[in-house]
């Protein structure tokens, strides 16, 4: 087995499928990316804590386990933004998580539909 040096180069997600999908999936995907504020994208801590929030909110673990990353996230934002801006940013980013869950579900359905229409072939190039 050969281990690929750069997996990103070898995984080709065909976004043309999104352009053909009903429901303007390509535009929705593009809108999600464009509305993710640049200062959020460039703050590694925000991205890492968002990942933790997403991972822990997707599990069936207890409520306490799900609240911890959200509390850490809120407190981090309070440490880098003044009062109202921290709260506003927190709410906007929690909304982005909600949008991401919805977008993920819709994208999964698009690619599953493509797989069923192509007789098992996927929208992914083999790695």
- Mean pLDDT over all positions: 74
Number of strands: 0
Number of helices: 7
Strand fraction: under 5%
Structural category: mainly alpha
Largest sheet data:
none
How much is the radius of gyration in Å?
A: 18 Å
Q: What is the terminal separation in angstroms?
A: 11 Å
Shape: elongated
Would you kindly provide a written description of the structure presented here, covering whatever features stand out?
The chain has a domain at 38-117. Helix content is 71%, strand content 0%. It has seven helices and no strands. The protein has helices at 7-10, 16-20, 25-34, 38-41, 44-57, 63-80, 83-117. The longest helix is centred in the C-terminal third of the chain and has 35 residues, at 83-117. The radius of gyration is 18 Å and the shape is elongated. The termini are close together. Mean pLDDT is 74; it is low at 1-11 and 122-127. The chain crosses the membrane at residues 46-65. Keywords: Membrane, Receptor, Transcription, Transcription regulation, Transmembrane, Transmembrane helix.
Architecture blueprint of SSEs:
Layout: H1 7-10, H2 16-20, H3 25-34, H4 38-41, H5 44-57, H6 63-80, H7 83-117
Helix pairs in contact: 3-7, 5-6, 6-7
Summarize this entry quickly.
This protein has helices spanning 7-10, 16-20, 25-34, 38-41, 44-57, 63-80, 83-117. It is an all-alpha fold and 127 residues long.
């Amino acid at each position: 087995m050969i281990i690929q040096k750069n997996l990103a180069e070898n995984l080709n997600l065909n976004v043309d499928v999104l352009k053909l999908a009903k429901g303007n999936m390509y535009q929705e995907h593009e809108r999600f990316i464009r509305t993710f504020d640049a200062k959020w994208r460039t703050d590694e801590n925000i991205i890492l804590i968002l990942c933790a929030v997403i991972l822990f909110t997707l599990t069936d673990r207890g409520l306490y386990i799900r609240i911890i990353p959200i509390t850490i996230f809120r407190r981090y934002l309070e440490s880098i933004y003044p009062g109202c801006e921290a709260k506003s940013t927190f709410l906007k980013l929690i909304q982005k998580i909600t949008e991401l869950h919805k977008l993920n579900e819709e994208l999964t359905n698009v690619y599953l539909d493509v797989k069923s229409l192509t007789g098992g072939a996927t929208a992914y190039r083999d790695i």
